[in-house]
Structure to design on (960 residues):
């Protein structure tokens, strides 16, 4: 099949396409299966080698089996050809395969369009600022490739890159208008493939020894909070997640059945705040104890956890309030109390014996303070607890005496239940880090925590945090101060140098602004913005009209600007007029009919001191203007400068 | 057909109004999305659906940026033609069956180059051109000359897809240009030379026999007569021509009547054309006689052109 001349692809356009393919597929190498990276990398190298040696491209009888093998590999790896990961893998494979089939400009157009498409797929994995910058650069390169394809080999790569930059910059106003005014629809339009939200970390709804300790080693942000008023004291910042009532000897988990509605008496004024939750794929919010003023789409469970109708699988904002002092279920359903006294049979005999001993002659408050006193005496707070045996609480209390918050919470609740005091484990986050730059409190996965709640007659459910007894620093300043040096905490949290912390605050404030204002621009924000612009209650039709009108104005403005720019004046003439102005200042005016040489002669008579420099100007002007070269501009410029 | 032609004329204004040079204005340039542009638009729609479905804020931004890029590309494609100055040039005569070349000059008074221009008078024979910043480019548009006589330049489609290839902008040009097409020469033995010997009255006037000295070259002189060695001796001086004196001269009368009357008119013209060329190649003196046309004996480039012109424009 021969290619018509106008579709022919010149040889030096091909490296641009290699660059396009590399720039748009390379970031996927991070998360796609290694064999696919090797395959696509090898095909890219093969295509480059064939081009370098000017060899013929492989025929269909090689390409078709290759595509088949690649697709089969993807099918084996992901068990599907569609969905997020498999779809991206297919696109990456097609991109490199197409390089081996690059014959005409039409093929090149397919590669470029595929390149633009691949840019989008990166946002499925990350929408951070660095990704945005990288993709902007990649888009610039792809656009330059497109210009190179149609501009032919006559210009320099630099010119194409510059032109592409100009085009991309001119496209930005359109992007801003579309971004703000294009009618936003809340996705998804249809059911997403199951892997759409893979890999989101966060608190799980069960607790086993070590589960939180593992989470704490992750510095990712769990949520950000902005209080309307001042920041409450740090030891009051308990962000409630799942409440776990059932214990099978190793795992704590929530009771799946129904709870009666909670009775909550606030004893302090509510504190309003806005929380921006990162996706964690669970159906609960992390609300400050005790939550009030719930948003419409949420509900309060019987254990004071705020639940949403759907799992939170993308960053979401909620407005809530909290009462820091509260009374919760002063009269509790006996069924619930009974459930919170259950311990697995024949487990932890030593703990039970200790609790039975404490119960004699002590009020529940007395038992609690005895337990906390035990922890405070000689227990160590560490991320490296030794392995525990079958009677895990016995092992922990009487032998290892080293543990993390989940060990303390679990041991405490076991002790309480053995002492006939209803108790349960609460998972969530504690504390957070206040960023003074943007006034947000940042709560990370490393702030994950577990504490206990006991039911006392007349007081209802009361929070008891045994970790506070072991390591008061954990609650008052944060985990970095609570752990001994050398614990495997993320570097981000461990480094306490001031300038690094300031840098980090700045970076996180920028990220937060990015998340709040750019990524968080949703139908809700769009409505707010339009209302502020005086377009309240807009339907999509007037939005489309506003959009079309603005884009039309932009096109007209850009056309006027690019098409009817004033022609640039000849620099030689401009310099000559500058010289004439200099003469006029010295009372020598050039008559309209006077030639430069006549003028020079007159200058020699009237102002002999100017004769020589002006003669130089005239000579340079005549050569630059009428000579057949472009190089005398500098001579003229120097001569005019010396006239001064 | 008449209506269609009028409509096209009204709509596309391809007929130049005769005032050359022509500057492409806004109303002469048309633009539609190209096939690549449609592919791009389709990709953008799919990307937008993807961005909505996965709720990708940056995906929205990317799609909108690319949509803006498409619009900007449209303006720049339009701009690549807008304001281009087209000046018709010369077109040398050709023989029927050859390809005529119409010279056109494209001027760019912008400070940015105009690349990827394509001119096409006959489909399938495009000419590609680029005009650098503040420069001009001369190019020849090929048109196959099928018939003798005047060949007017057909409508020329000037199109471009530069810079992004997402849109095709085009303009129709029809500068009033024509090219003379000589009849296709048919090789045939020359007719016998006329019996009239050359008398003394023609001596000293461009004869071919005896070397008589040098003279300065005039523009009408054939390059074949330049005395290169003699000219080279005096490198800065004018080119010199060898002059010959006297001698007998072959004289030919190329007459319509000498061709076979049974042949078609065009064939007879072809034979005469072949004779003119052969006679000229032999440096003979010859005259041409057609019904109603009589060109006296002569020689040289100008004479040859006169004869061929008469043959090209002969109306039987």
């Amino acid at each position: 099949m021969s290619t018509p001349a106008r579709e022919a692809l010149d040889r030096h356009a091909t490296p641009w396409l290699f660059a396009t393919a590399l720039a748009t597929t390379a970031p996927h190498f991070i998360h796609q299966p290694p064999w696919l990276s090797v395959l696509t990398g090898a095909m890219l190298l093969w295509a480059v080698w064939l081009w370098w040696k000017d060899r013929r491209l492989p025929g269909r009888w090689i390409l078709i089996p290759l595509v088949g093998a690649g697709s089969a590999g993807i099918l084996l790896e992901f068990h599907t050809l569609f969905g997020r990961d498999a779809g991206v893998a297919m696109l990456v494979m097609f991109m490199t395969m197409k390089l081996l089939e690059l014959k005409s400009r039409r093929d090149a157009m397919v590669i470029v369009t595929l390149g633009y498409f691949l840019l989008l797929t990166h946002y499925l994995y990350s929408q951070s600022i660095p990704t945005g910058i990288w993709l902007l650069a990649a888009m610039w390169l792809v656009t330059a490739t497109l210009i190179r394809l149609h501009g032919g080999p006559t210009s320099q790569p630099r010119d194409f890159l510059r032109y592409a930059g100009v085009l991309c910059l001119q496209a930005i106003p359109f992007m801003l208008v579309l971004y703000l005014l294009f009618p936003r629809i809340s996705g998804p339009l249809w059911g997403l493939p199951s892997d759409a939200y893979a890999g989101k970390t966060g608190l799980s709804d069960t607790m086993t020894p070590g589960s939180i300790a593992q989470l704490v080693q992750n510095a990712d942000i769990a949520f950000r909070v902005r209080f309307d008023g001042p920041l409450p004291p740090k030891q009051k910042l308990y962000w409630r997640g799942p409440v776990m009532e059932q214990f099978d000897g190793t795992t704590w988990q929530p009771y799946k059945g129904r709870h009666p509605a909670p009775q909550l008496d606030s004893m302090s004024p509510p504190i309003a705040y806005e929380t921006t939750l990162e996706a964690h794929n669970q159906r609960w919010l992390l609300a400050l104890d005790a939550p009030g003023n719930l948003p419409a789409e949420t509900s309060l469970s019987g254990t004071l956890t705020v639940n949403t109708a759907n799992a939170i699988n993308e960053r979401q904002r909620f407005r809530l309030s909290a009462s820091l002092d509260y009374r919760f279920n002063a009269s509790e359903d006996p069924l619930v109390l009974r459930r919170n006294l259950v311990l697995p049979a024949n487990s932890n005999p030593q703990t039970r014996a200790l609790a039975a001993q404490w119960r004699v002659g002590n009020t529940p408050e007395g038992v609690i303070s005895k337990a906390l006193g035990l922890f405070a005496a000689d227990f160590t707070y560490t991320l490296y607890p030794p392995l525990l045996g079958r009677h895990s609480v016995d092992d922990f209390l009487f032998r290892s005496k080293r543990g993390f918050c989940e060990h303390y919470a679990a041991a405490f609740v076991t002790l309480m239940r053995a002492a006939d005091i209803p108790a349960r484990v609460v998972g969530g986050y504690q504390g957070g880090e206040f960023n003074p730059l943007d006034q947000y409190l940042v709560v990370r996965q490393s702030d994950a925590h577990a504490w206990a709640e006991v039911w006392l007659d007349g007081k209802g459910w009361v929070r008891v945090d045994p970790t506070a007894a072991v390591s008061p620093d954990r609650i008052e300043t944060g985990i970095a101060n609570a752990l001994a040096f050398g614990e495997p905490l993320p570097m981000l949290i461990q480094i306490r140098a001031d300038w690094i912390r300031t840098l980090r605050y700045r970076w996180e404030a920028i990220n937060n602004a990015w998340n709040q204002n750019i990524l968080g621009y949703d139908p809700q924000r769009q409505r707010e913005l339009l209302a502020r612009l005086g377009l309240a209650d807009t339907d999509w039709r007037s939005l489309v009209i506003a959009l079309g009108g603005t884009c039309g104005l932009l096109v007209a403005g850009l056309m006027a600007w690019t098409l009817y720019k004033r022609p640039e004046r000849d620099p030689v003439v401009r310099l000559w007029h500058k010289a004439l102005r200099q003469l006029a200042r010295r009372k020598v005016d050039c008559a309209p009919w006077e030639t430069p040489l006549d003028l020079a002669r007159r200058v020699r008579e009237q102002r002999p001191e100017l004769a020589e420099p002006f003669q130089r100007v005239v000579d340079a002007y005549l050569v630059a203007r009428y000579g057949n070269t472009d190089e005398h501009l500098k001579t003229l410029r120097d001569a005019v400068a010396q006239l001064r | 057909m008449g209506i269609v032609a009028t409509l096209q004329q009204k709509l596309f204004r391809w007929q130049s109004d005769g005032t050359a040079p022509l500057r492409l204005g806004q109303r002469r340039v048309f633009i539609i999305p190209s096939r690549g542009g449609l592919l791009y638009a389709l990709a953008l729609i799919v990307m937008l659906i993807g961005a909505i479905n996965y709720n990708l804020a940056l995906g929205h931004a990317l799609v909108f940026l690319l949509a803006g890029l498409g619009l900007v590309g449209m303006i720049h494609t339009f701009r690549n033609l807008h304001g281009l100055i087209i000046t018709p040039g010369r077109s040398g005569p050709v023989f029927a069956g050859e390809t005529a070349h119409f010279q056109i000059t494209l001027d760019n008074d912008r400070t940015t180059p105009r690349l990827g221009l394509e001119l096409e008078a006959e489909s399938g024979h495009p000419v590609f051109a680029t005009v650098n910043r503040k420069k001009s480019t001369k190019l020849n548009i090929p048109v196959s000359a099928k018939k003798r006589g005047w060949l007017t330049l057909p409508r020329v489609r000037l199109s471009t897809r530069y810079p992004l290839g997402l849109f095709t902008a085009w303009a129709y040009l029809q500068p009033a240009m024509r090219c003379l097409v000589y009849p296709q020469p048919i090789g045939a033995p020359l007719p016998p030379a006329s019996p009239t010997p050359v008398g003394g009255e023609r001596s000293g006037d461009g004869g071919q026999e005896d070397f008589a000295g040098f003279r300065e070259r005039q523009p009408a002189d054939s390059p074949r007569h330049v005395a290169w060695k003699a000219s080279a001796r005096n490198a800065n001086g004018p080119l010199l021509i060898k002059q010959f004196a006297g001698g007998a001269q072959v004289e030919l009368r190329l007459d319509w009547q000498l061709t076979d009357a049974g042949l078609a008119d065009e064939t007879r013209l072809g034979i005469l054309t072949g004779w003119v060329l052969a006679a000229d190649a032999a440096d003979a003196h010859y005259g041409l006689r057609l019904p109603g046309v009589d060109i006296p004996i002569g020689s040289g480039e100008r004479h040859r052109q006169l004869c061929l012109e008469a043959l090209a424009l002969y109306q039987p």
About this structure: The first strand of chain B starts at residue 22 and ends at 23.
